[in-house]
Queue: 4 jobs
Job 1
Amino acid sequence: MTDPTPVVDRYIAIWNATDPEDRRDLVAGSWAEDGAYLDPLMKGEGHAGIDAMIAGVQARFPGFVMSRTGPVDAHNDRVRFTWALGPAGAEPLVAGLDVGVLAQDGRLASITGFLDKVPG
């Protein structure tokens, strides 16, 4: 496996891309066509479903920024990493751990998210 950190960093960039065209381009370049995202609160399937899910989060939390909060751990075709979401320069309101599977071409096949911190 090549270093998966750039794939994960592109994934984080998708969550921060507020221009719909830029976000769709990032999704297409980072996710397999049949990619799927799942966490306890939402899911998205395929490029359109993942894009719509992220757009919904951005609408609910306008101006929030997602960042990776630790190193990317990987083996075989699996990755895991921690992240946080909140206003720039402020304490994050949401944080969690994601576990992903990489497709043969190096793009994301799936992400399963675990939420460690959510707003009340």
Job 2
Amino acid sequence: MEQIQIIDSKNHVGETVKIGAWVANKRSSGKIAFLQLRDGTAYFQGVVVKSEVPEEVFQLAKGLNQETSVMITGEIREDTRSKFGYEIGITGIEVIGESNEYPITPKEHGTDFLMDHRHLWLRSSKQHAVMQVRNEIIRATYEFFNTNGFVKIDPPILTGSAPEGTTELFHTNYFDEEAYLSQSGQLYMEAAAMAFGKVFSFGPTFRAEKSKTRRHLIEFWMIEPEMAFMHQEDSLEVQEKYVAFLVQNVLDNCDHALDILERDKELLKKYTKLPFPRISYDDAVELLKKNGFDDIEWGDDFGSPHETFIANSFEQPVFILNYPKAIKPFYMKPHPTRDDVVICADMIAPEGYGEIIGGSERATDYEFLLEQIRQHGLDEKEYSWYLDLRKYGSVPHSGFGLGLERTVTWLSGIEHVRESIPFPRLLNRLYP
């Protein structure tokens, strides 16, 4: 008898199989017991009919507690009433591990309670679906960059300097030196691009920012491509193709997960249409001012309400181009005809999900960068290796960073970024 996973049920209709699973829920009458089973790949129903099994099997089924692990024996059959489409007619049950007084019951629980039990909350159908969307985004990311000639390079997590200033870094001792947890791998990816042409990284980053918004995490994952011999306009095309590719693959491969999340698939399909709209920072400020945002002035960074309004004006991901130089990092290329803005763009997701990509063309002039480093109060010695990149065959190059968790939150249609990562690190939360 073959042991299968629930997700493969469609290939075994009419066959008697074994499945290792957990009991997510159950209900029973005098003559039939229904078990909601999950095995990590999918959920489906197991049916135990009293007249078709020994009495001890039926009584065992009726007495199973939530999250008890079992080995089920039975016949796979079609079930047109369920979205999954299949169920198992159970003939045998072996209890593997008992579960008593499981804390997350089928009722409403507060957020703090669920976060304290995150190690168990991951088992619920909605959280499971979000992690499936996350996994698909990760899988599709590797496919996109691997098929487009990029080489994956892993930048260090421990660094001696900060790419975007020193105010939001986690400090640690590195033997007899000062070190920080990385807030971006970008500078190292620039070095890698000078060696390999097109590169990308995919790893954890850290921000010691005391933020409590629904868009912020302390620890999160970033995808950071960097491309030599590429100007900003070409980079924007890569960015929109990449995001549209992610959306399409989630639609193609996470159909059941999107159903569980009650995500509007027709809305997601709109986000695959290219090109994405673009608006300059200047015009974005004017758009906001004309629509009652009296709190915004040229030179300000946009907050969540501003980004949401701008994105909703286009109903698609939108690029905001060329922000003021004063609110962007030191490494961005200055605009050729203006001293007050740099060549950069943020991609803002629709539906109020905010910035998911930040990118720019990088400055290539050695003296300009040296002056920027000094003006930002950064240590020239710490950045000497970065300046070397402008001394030995510098070329135009551009890159960007996409936040994985914000993208998962957006495509899943969930409210808070804390549900987009298995074990979130938030302000005042380091457990579990």
Job 3
Amino acid sequence: MVSWKPISPFRLCSLLRSQKDPSLAFQLFTNPNPNHDRPFRYSLLSYDLIITKLGRAKMFTQMEQILQQLQRETRFQIPEPLFCHVISFYARARLPARALHAFLSIPSFRCSPSLKSFNSLLHALLTCRQFNAMSQLMSRVHHFGTPDACTYNILISACSSQGHVERAWKLFDEMRQRGVPPNVVTFGILTNLLCKNSLVQEAFKLKEDMERGFRLKTNVFVYTNLIKGVCEIGDFDWAFRVKDEMVRNNLRLDAVVYNTLINALFKAGKKEEGFRVLEEMKNNGCKPDAVTCNVLIVEHCRQNNFVEAYRVLDGKEGVKPDVVGYNVVIGWLCKQGKWSKAVDLFHDMPRRQCAPDVVTYRTLFDALCQWMQFAEAGLILEEMIFKGFVPHALSLNEFVEGLCREGKFELLLTVLNELGRGGLCNEETWKSVVSMVCTRENMSAPFEVFDTLVLA
């Protein structure tokens, strides 16, 4: 008879680290020794590992179950960074209310929230674009500590997201008046904001203040912002001078810098110069990434050179593009009226190991409706609803109107059934169907449609 050795707390941590499937990791954590009745003594590390794994997988129901169990633990002190991670997981999932709840629940874990977790919540609200909530939260900052550079960087980022240059400058002045030294991140956010608002001269002056007044070295992010700024105003000589300065300062030019230059040159119609920069990029050992591919695809499509666009999709640049590249090609094919080729590429995406996203479906569905390819549009809509994607309301109404106008009531019945199952039969859809079918002389088909609408 084989006797199974029970899993120890140390062994559980090792197994959780190696388990790639978060569902299996959850099962293992909740029942590590199914044949033993003794309570398992979980370590803090095992809690941290499973919460991280579940949070990254957005398995929040299971994660909250583990947190409730952790709340009952009294054998160890629970560190604040664990809650910062939980808050960030909710932020990535755009769940600001849950992020706030996680922050407010920290004391119930016998842990005192400090400025660290406060900043995590503030950043979560920024990620979710809850700017009013950020203002309300800042009124309570004194309960958790004195605002530091991280706090101000988050607030300045919020101003940047909203394009509020003056408000950002006031915050910058305020942090210096309070003796909070700005860091490289602060200057990166500000230069980005200035360049986005075509205040390039001010951005370069800020760079000088950063280097001379604060003795900080300009990093790649700041330089990239400056290059974007001068490219936006069309001064490519200036952009190349900034690039050369980066090289002199022993900063490695990354794909972001090269992609910025290539994209700007292509947009300005400087195609040959753009490809020269691409060659320089490769010669300097900087491998093109998915963004590079997308920039090239846009340029080829702009030139109606779909052969080259497909070549990039095939990975001929040494890297496979992401779904954005496919969406660009499908969009341009649809604009050219080549909807059949767009559909073929769409169906070929899984074989190319690239899953269509909501933009893919919407782009194709909109185009098929525009070109009155209702049968194909119906198939795309059916698959779209099955995958949980929602079409644009305007396109959906135009599609229904087109089916009514063309008298395609059999297809309309099928579509309405699908919309009903997906909960997408809105008021505008009702109005479109009612107004269109009532104009038909043969009223048998319209009554079938009304029956379907009532059942939906």
Job 4
Amino acid sequence: MALGLRANAAQFSLLVAVNALVGGMLGQERTVLPLLATRTFHLTAYTAALTYILAFGVSKAATNYVAGTWSDRYGRKPVLVAGWLVAVPVPLLLIWAPSWGWIVAANVLLGVSQGLTWSTTVIMKIDLVGPARRGFAMGLNEAAGYGAVAVTALATGYLAQAFGLRPAPFLLGIAFAALGLGLSTVFVRETRGHARLEAANHVARADGRHDHLHDELTDAQVFTQTSFREPALSSASQAGLVNNLNDGLAWGLFPVLFAATGMSVARIGVLAALYPGVWGLGQLFTGALSDRWGRKWLIAGGMWLQALALALVALGNTFTLWAVAAVLLGAGTAMVYPTLLASIGDVAHPAWRARSVGVYRLWRDGGFAVGALLAGVVADAWGVRTAVWVVAGLTAGSGLVVAVRMYETHLPAASRAAA
């Protein structure tokens, strides 16, 4: 057993493929579900229409937390396989749902599944790759997941345009669930031993940070450090929450905003795919960049770029301007997403890292629920564009918190050598 990307290339690549399938399960909803809410189920209130994102966010956030604990207790692979088993009924429920309540129930299951599967693929890649290339590993993981979200959002837009909103777009989800379950059950191997190997050879930071964060922390202590006390961990947690708050807004309200101009479902699908597409591909570069340049300013700058993009969405009325905004939003998110995960891996001790990742992802994906509630209430009261402006302001403020409170968690190689 050895740590490193080269030493574990086969398993790492397999986990990248599995996470692409996880992303595809999410992508099947991005274009179609907001339109199902208004056109098939005739929901007129934005708050009611966004209940599926609220259900998804709450269930995924809670499951992220237990996924980290269960991964330490029972192993990574059993949690991954369990997540795929929960995913199997989701596309079937979306196809056959007779009422909106069934759609909400399907998204509870989707949230549980995503919490178990995405969390464990993150934890397993961190286990395998070791500390030196953690940002690059997270970039590959998130690029695969959100690249698949984009491709599936685009594909479902064209399928919906050609064959209707149901069932054609969700047939992709059936294929993804079957393939993901099969690969995870037969070919994925347990990685908990790699984390134990890293823990046995763990070296403290030269600057003395984290000396109080030894390897014997209770679940409550891990939650407190990650959420509130430790400056870098808590800064990452709030930034993750706000990032997914604006993603929940983009998922739930952007297609409705675009459709209000008379735009076709296929063109809405292009816009719905552009944002996660740039996000996904960009992470191939930003994760590795954070290994060279450090984490803090990529995170702060990414939050500010997202805020600018949201302002352009609020101001826009044309496909071209919205496409530019989607590209900028994706680029900002790409700067933030793998870098936040890498910063958690930098600070958390290998003995409790899986639990810390779970707590961070609890806060991050809780942003979906907060975003659905906030965006729905504001949009119902003052309109969709006002909701976008409010979230843009919150996103800019989150970047400021990172700039002020977070320290650099990963010293570039030259700085480490000098120290």
